[in-house]
Design goal:
Length: 392
């Protein structure tokens, strides 16, 4: 949002105006009525959304709910760094039925390298304090709070995993750093591995999968990949082959493709759509939003030749971007995703009774996947949309 190539946030208001909230509510209602949608998910994000204050949050949720009732039910989630959490916030979340996620990047020493205040002080102690307040509050939110944690490739994965277990975390989602062919991913300081992120995740997976299913911490990436490998089609932005049914509404009312695409360049997500004058359907038809919605269908030739593309889905759209080919590339994390997915698939096969294994579910190694891609690349050298996804 602030450090990866786009400064358009500086030209936007810090919070939505009442007028923008009203128009947003109208667009949600319009969209749901047209497409017969009964439940609409809203994620309140930032920056840091708690800086807007409790009054703003109550006004926002109240305006949306009043405009949707009784035809559509809005369900709310909020992502926060947790440093401002107190009992008043917990009460507000309970009253408004808002599920809360907290951003924390591992142990204190690692988190405080990146999640710092303007003064340079680390935020770890305040984040954990806020998490404990939320977890122990008398005001019970609908779901237990979960963590989002960006992977620090130089942190010990076992220490990181154990840290979240020590916090008694209910769920953790480990995120790959935002990166592409213009903005490379951080490298491991001591490893020459071509798959350092897969190696990091596999270390945790091999511990996690052996723990008791009823009591082990939920890790969304692992759970979703297992479901996809078993053939269950899920809506998940990063993996799978479903549509990405997500739009971002900026504080000025701009309707944009997902904010992670800001790493592709200055003003990259700006498409000229706004809730004051455009419908969501109109916004989705803008080139970038359309590409994002179809990201798991509009794949590069390498991805089309890959035998696990229905699980991988090409990875997140922003990780495929280059100035030369636009989005007509495999993910910058392609090898990591191949290695992680094949490792999980083989682990599942090893664990299941033979009669539960589908005839099409075979053991396959990372090296075999690369060989298959090499053999099939020429068959997928062009596609009907290759020019479209290249022109960004």
């Amino acid at each position: 949002m602030y450090n990866r190539g786009d400064s358009s946030w500086k030209r936007q208001p810090k919070v939505m105006s009442n007028e923008t909230i009203y128009f947003l509510a109208q667009r949600i209602k319009e969209h749901c009525m047209k497409h017969e949608i009964k439940k609409f998910n809203i994620i309140i994000h930032g920056g840091e959304p708690l800086l807007a204050g409790i009054h703003f949050l109550k006004n926002f949720v109240g305006t949306i709910n009043n405009n949707l009732f009784p035809d559509v039910k809005a369900e709310y989630s909020l992502q926060t760094n947790g440093t401002l959490l107190d009992e008043d916030w917990c009460k507000a979340f309970d009253e408004l039925s808002i599920n809360v996620g907290i951003s924390l990047d591992g142990i204190k020493e690692e988190n405080d390298k990146y999640r710092i205040y303007h003064s340079g002080k680390g935020s770890y102690d305040d984040i954990v304090k806020g998490y404990n307040i939320l977890k122990q509050s008398n005001y019970v939110t609908k779901k237990k709070p979960g963590f989002l944690s960006v992977i620090n490739i130089n942190a010990d994965p076992i220490d990181t995993y154990q840290h979240f277990k020590n916090l008694r975390a209910y769920t953790v989602d480990f995120l790959l750093p935002e990166a592409n062919f213009v903005t490379p991913a951080p490298k491991h300081s001591n490893s020459l591995s071509q798959t350092p992120y897969a190696d990091w995740m596999i270390t945790i997976f091999d511990i996690w999968i052996k723990e008791d299913k009823e009591t082990r911490m939920r890790i969304r990436t692992f759970e979703f990949l297992i479901e996809l490998i078993l053939g269950n089609n899920l809506d998940f932005e990063v993996f799978g082959n479903s549509h990405n049914d997500v739009l971002v509404i900026e504080t000025d009312g701009s309707i944009e493709a997902v904010d992670a695409l800001k790493i592709c360049g200055e003003g990259f997500t700006k498409a000229g759509s706004n809730v004051k004058i455009h419908s969501f359907d109109e916004a989705i038809e803008t080139p970038l939003a359309k590409t994002y919605v179809m990201a798991h269908k509009y794949l590069s030739s390498k991805c089309l030749a890959c035998p696990i593309n229905e699980v991988c889905g090409g990875g997140s759209l922003q990780t495929r971007y280059s100035k030369k080919n636009g989005f007509n590339n495999p993910s910058v994390y392609c090898k990591d995703l191949m290695k992680l997915i094949t490792h999980i698939q083989n682990s599942i096969i090893d664990a299941l009774p033979q009669h539960f294994i589908d005839n099409n579910m075979d053991r396959i190694t990372y090296e075999e996947v690369m060989d298959i891609i090499e053999e099939n690349m020429t068959e997928h050298s062009t596609s009907s949309y290759s020019t479209f996804i290249s022109n960004f």
